[in-house]
Write a structure and sequence with these properties.
This protein is mainly alpha-helical. It has one domain. The chain is built from nine helices and two strands, in the order ααααααβαβαα. Strands 1-2 form a two-stranded antiparallel sheet. It is globular.
Length: about 230
């Protein structure tokens, strides 16, 4: 039987984002939560190394950024599916350890922003587009061009399943208009003139825990139930 370790899993996922389809071959879909977390932990702990290699070789950083974002969401999804709850300290502490220097001191703020924020924004972008796709607060008349440049909206959650899907033809167009009089489809408090927190919040290292809690809430309400 072929053994796939955490490094091999990261490479396979990155290859799908660069050249293939993670929806058709969801490498984090059928694995044990601990296996997914190991891959996520290895990727996060090697953030600096990965970025240095990308800068030196001049390769596109997008597949790596999206790989780590995918592993974060996969970790949330698998732990929620098995434990029915998520402790935000789990990933937050992981990032804090990864973003310290050899002396145990936090990296400079600019270095943290450079290494972490592209990954967090990748997670935020995915959740914004997927969660608002059929929410009554949002209008999408010519709305899918942005998503079509990346993945198919209709098959998004299949990347966290065991079998994946055959990719449908991409849609086109994207814009974001919000009706503040409609309820939130996943239950966020949007009373009054409050906006969807997925679009409102600006993630920072200080607010990372709150952002991950919000992401976990969307995954809990949106991702299909994992069946064994």
């Amino acid at each position: 039987m072929l053994e796939i370790g955490p490094m091999e899993r990261i490479a396979l996922i990155a290859n799908e984002f660069a050249h293939g389809s993670i929806d058709e071959r969801p490498w984090a879909g059928a694995s044990d939560p601990a296996v997914i977390f190991d891959a996520c932990r290895l990727g996060v702990f090697n953030l600096l190394y990965l970025y240095v290699r990308m800068v030196k070789t001049g390769v596109d950083e997008a597949p790596i950024v999206r790989t780590l974002g995918y592993l974060i969401l996969a970790t949330l999804r698998h732990f929620l599916a098995t434990l029915r709850h998520y402790n935000s300290d789990l990933l937050e502490e992981l990032f804090k350890i990864a973003l310290t220097n050899d002396g145990g001191e936090p990296m400079p703020e600019k270095a943290v922003d450079f290494l972490l924020m592209p990954i967090v924004h990748s997670v935020q972008d995915d959740l914004q587009l997927e969660c608002s796709s059929n929410c009554e607060r949002f209008s999408r008349d010519d709305s899918f061009k942005h998503w079509a440049r990346r993945d198919s909206l209709e098959s998004y959650w299949s990347r966290f399943t065991e079998r994946g899907v055959v990719r449908p033809k991409p849609q086109e167009g994207y814009h974001h208009l919000e009706r503040t009089t409609e309820p939130c489809i996943v239950g966020f408090d949007v009373s009054g003139d409050a906006s969807c927190p997925l679009y409102q919040i600006e993630p920072t290292i200080e607010r990372l825990g709150a952002f991950l809690e919000m992401a976990a809430h969307v995954v809990r309400r949106r991702a299909p139930v994992r069946r064994h």
